[in-house]
Design goal:
Blueprint lengths: L7 E3 L2 E3 L1 H20 L9 H16 L6 E2 L2 E2 L6 H12 L8 H26 L2 H12 L2 H7 L5 H20 L4 H18 L3 H18 L2 H8 L1 H22 L2 H5 L32 H13 L1 H6 L1 H14 L14 H18 L1 H24 L5 H21 L4 H23 L6 H15 L6 E4 L4 H7 L5 E2 L2 H5 L8 E5 L4 H7 E5 L10 E7 L4
Parallel strand pairs: 5-6, 5-7
Antiparallel strand pairs: 1-2, 3-4, 7-9, 8-9
Helix pairs in contact: 1-4, 1-5, 1-19, 2-3, 2-21, 3-4, 4-5, 4-7, 5-16, 5-19, 7-8, 7-9, 8-11, 9-10, 9-15, 13-16, 16-17, 17-19, 18-19, 20-21
Amino acid sequence: MVTLTSTVVQGGAVSDERRWQQTLIAFVLAVCVMGLVRIDSVPLDSHEIFVAGTVRAMSERDDWVLPWFNGAPRLNKPPLSYWAAGGVAALAGDLPDVRPWHVRAVSVAAGIGILLCTIALGLTLFDARTALLAGALLGSSAGIFSFIHDARPDLLYAFFTTLMLLGLARAVLRPTTARWWMGLAWLACGLAILTKGPQLPLMVLVGALPACRRYAGSWRACLRVLQPLPGAALVAFLCVPWWWALSLRLSTVQVETSQLGGQLLVPSLSHLAELYYTYRPLQLTLPWIFPAGLALIAYARAKSLRSDVLLLAGPVLTAAVLLSFGQQYRYFYLLPLIGPLVLLLVRPLMVFEDRAVARARGIWLCQVLVVLACLAWVLTQIAAAPRTVAACLVAGIAGGLWSYWLWRDDICLRRWLPLAFLMMGGWAGAAASGAVWNAERYADQALADEAAHLFPPGQPVFALGVSPTVFAWNMRRDIPGIPDLATLARYIRAPSTVGVITTPDLVPSLERDYGVEVIETQTKSSAYRLLRVQPREPP
């Protein structure tokens, strides 16, 4: 355990603090570039639209308490991500219009926040070298890259969860300032609950208890540090007013039968034997395959390593176990703990590099091949945006050379920091090429734009057997989702004509009962068909 000082300790020598700060600034700038590339030009997917569409509807209704989308309350998530995106749109002067960059900017800011919190956590638990390497691998990970381009509330949730763990760690290890750090931890806990719910904050708290007890010396001292009663009061102060205001607008049954009422928290044993959370969340740490493999071996063999990371491993393992009893399995459910997860990978790597330099070189060379393979794939996509992709790759190479020169006297950092900068340049280039997003996003948006042009606001449009989300967002109107033909029949009355968006396999069934015109659209790549449907004239 080390203390945070004004210098950087590396391999026994004391380095100028300035280059550490320069590297940290470079990380932040690189993550910004990764997130800002095409932030407004890539169409929103359906999960992002739930955020953007809800913000737009709440603004149009002038009601920031009840989430609303496509003509109905959206009781899936608490409102903090909607408020944050609405705040960005308001600062830009665009409300009630909401653009993709408004909602994605929240994730970019959250990604930078996670990076800084993880580095601070590394400084608190280990040393500046470990913290810096963790920041490098985290900033260049698939988890950060993927979700800073995603408007879902997951990355904001991850930021508050990481901030909570940082506050808890600082409180336990800095008893003289414990009160303030635990206040920050409980504040972050309340904000996380307002973002996506209490699941991960509670798992972090439960998982951290053994380490807190160990560092505090006794359970009584541990409780004095954690301050559970003032903390619970602060969390209630943050969360209860919104729940109370929501209850005034909805019935108890509506809330209790929704995700907000804990519908998905009922334990299930159906997937328990799959051991999903023992391996799949490592997808978040790609492309750092070999540090992950080394970490698994190192923790299995070295008890001293396990004891050093108890405050990180406890929350990660607790979350992995408890999420295994959930009804839904999603690898990104562990995204809120991506910072601790990367620190768990980095700590054995740092120790191994320092103690076994020759063998560490082999691991590093294998990882070099993985990164070069990723960059080679980006080069195959360069034709889509040659100047931007090339600029991103050149920036990554320049960052790698600069970091090698800056840390040339530290064998570990001079190996791994350049790889991280190269990978961040590759991620930015991949985003610029558009190759990391499937063509369906563009096709569905184009089809929705055509439908909006062909069917004016007074003419009903229905989504038959498909999700109406993308079409409701892009057509700026409510699009009822119709599950089957029997339900659609209630809406078709002579002599009216309605628009229907459906899949090709349902077209023959419609043609048997109605007059159907399949509209030839310019969007040939869409999986859906746009139809004009009206009752048949009697014979």
